[in-house]
Design a protein that fits this description.
128 residues; alpha+beta; 2 helices
Length: 128
């Protein structure tokens, strides 16, 4: 049985293994960013090159270009490496323009707000 050296453990828990690789970064506010990791620090602040925000609403998606993007480490929920050989999205997803995805996001947000308002109005019934 072999044991890993302290250097191996450090590298496996560090973002160093992701340098110069294409990543998906999930942020606290739910946004999904794609880009190549170019730099990071001890607080998990990260710099993505060629970054874009992947907006998904139902079966629609759009990659909104952001360019060079700095992410504050406290906002990161998840970081994962993307396989450049594989297709990133299921075949049923349809790519749309930025204005179209913004309209779809607005409609989804309004529907969610309406659902919350209706739930508040029905609280007095105590259906539980």
């Amino acid at each position: 049985m072999s044991w890993a050296s302290p250097e191996d453990i450090y590298l496996s828990t560090s973002l160093a293994s992701y340098l110069d690789k294409k990543l998906l970064v999930l942020l606290r506010d739910g946004r999904k960013l794609l880009g190549t990791l170019r730099s990071f620090d001890q607080f998990a602040n990260a710099v993505l090159e060629g970054a874009c925000e992947r907006a998904i609403v139902g079966d629609l998606y759009c990659d909104i270009p952001l360019g060079l993007y700095v992410i504050r480490g406290e906002n990161v929920v998840l970081i994962g490496e993307l396989d450049v050989e594989k297709e990133e999205l299921p075949p049923h997803m349809r790519r749309v323009s930025t204005p179209e995805i913004r309209r779809a996001q607005k409609a989804e947000r309004e529907a969610s707000d309406l659902k919350g308002t209706m739930r508040k109005r029905m609280e007095f019934l105590d259906l539980d």
